[in-house]
Amino acid sequence: MFQTLRTFLLSKARCWDADSQRSYQDLFEKLDTNKDGKVDVAELRAGLKAMGIFRQGAAQKIVSSGDQNKDGSLDFNEFTKYLKEHEKKLRLTFKSLDRNNDGRIDASEVQQSLAELGINISREDAQKILQRRLYVCSLSMDIDGSMMVDWNEWREHFLLYPEHNLEEIIRHWKHSSILDIGDSLAIPDEFTEEEKSTGGWWKQLVAGAVAGAVSRTGTAPLDRMKVFMQVHASKSNNISLVGGFRQMIAEGGLTSLWRGNGTNVLKIAPETAIKFMAYEQYKKLLSSDGKKIETYQRFMAGSLAGATAQTAIYPMEVLKTRLTLRKTGQYSGMFDCAKKILKNEGVKAFYKGYVPNLLGIIPYAGIDLAVYETLKTTWLSYHPKDSANPGVLVLLGCGTISSTCGQLASYPLALVRTRMQAQATLDASDQPSMSTLMKKILAKDGFFGLYRGILPNFMKVIPAVSISYVVYEYMKNGLGISK
Q: Taking every annotated instance into account, which residue ranges of this chain make up the domain EF-hand (predicted)?
């Protein structure tokens, strides 16, 4: 991970001296190429590119942050105010890194700061961040040859970058749960303090929920096929993909492929909100003295938040399964289904399969997070120059593979959960426990019987991730979330 920070810090930006002729006024005039007294996004983008510090979305973010009158550009007063406010934030970040208050940042301080973000690197790796020239300007070096960065160098380098702290730099590689694959076991998103204070977090949650709704609707036929095979397929009743679709269409028509999708979409919003709020609270409980949360604490907080959200919305999971498997005319809708379950089976029926579902969160979230971090580290080691901006395909690839590995680990528990949810009887003797049901599946169908329906489940991953990402980006633009 040190490559990410190094690439960001060591970008080939041309130095400019704020204390010489390149003052705010001179910088503004240089950027204002059409001399209309304003700097718009296009001019700022061209200026940043010419200075060698162009970053995707940086110009838009700077203009959006400083544009007080909302005319889509910055006049000199807005430009100056933005730079001064940004400089204050840079000063706070510099002070947080300068642990010994000597006015310079050295390798040990970089190492300590990254460790508090949950990124542990060696002293040698921390020195590598500072050993290359940070700017075209020369830097002073200490006796043992390690380089140090003073306030002026830090300020000059970061003044025209919208990011001002390590968390924002590193969150390029945030493992985002907006990549919706239909399973609600991923660790929630993390947001910066700026996003929390400005309200940007709720816009991202809304964008993610809409993206999830569209994604699940687009892949609903494959999801129904998965559930159908989980419950009905066996060695004696081998259901093929094509045969299963034919059977469902023959029984209920083409629209029957979307049975249960309404409930699956409806539960996204409450589950997302509960998971996010619970995650924030668990993080506070697990991290002491306001320190940054580490990876294992993030995993624990995410797992607990997932368990909390699942407990609250689990009855909807049962309804989704029943509606997905229903025959034509069996239920008129979600409320009718709930009414009949309550009347015929009692309240306990709404929590059938709850235990395997809860246990499934741990292997899914743990392996998903571990695989993503491994893939990220591997990619960074081979592509250090591109690490600060890996690109959409790399991020989607890492997220897709890690989520798929998480599913592989938790799928047997998901299958047992679905079978327990599908059982409709009041007779306690007909209700096998999780372990009993798993033993029966192993005895009857062997080990691979625990993976019935995994083919359509895998088939939906790539389209689900692609749809959710595209819709999420469109929603972000529509809601005015700057990149």
A: 19-54, 85-120
Residue of 284, 295, 417, 272 whose CA lies nearest to 351: 417
Class of domain 193-478: mainly alpha
Q: Count CA within 13 A, CB hemisphere, residue 389.
A: 10
Instruction: Assess whether pLDDT exceeds 50 at residue 82.
Output: yes
Q: What stretch(es) of the chain map to CATH 1.50.40.10?
A: 193-478
Q: How confident is the model at residue 402 (pLDDT cuts 50, 70, 90)?
A: confident
pLDDT above 90: residue 134: no
**If you average pLDDT over each of 93-97, 259-263, 293-297, 432-436, which comes out highest?**
259-263
Quick one: what percent of the chain has pLDDT higher than 90?
22
pLDDT value of residue 18: 44
Question: Where do you find CATH 1.10.238.10 in the chain?
Answer: 2-157
Q: Is the pLDDT of residue 24 over 60?
A: yes
CATH architecture observed for domain 2-157: Orthogonal Bundle (1.10)
Q: What is the pLDDT of residue 111?
A: 73
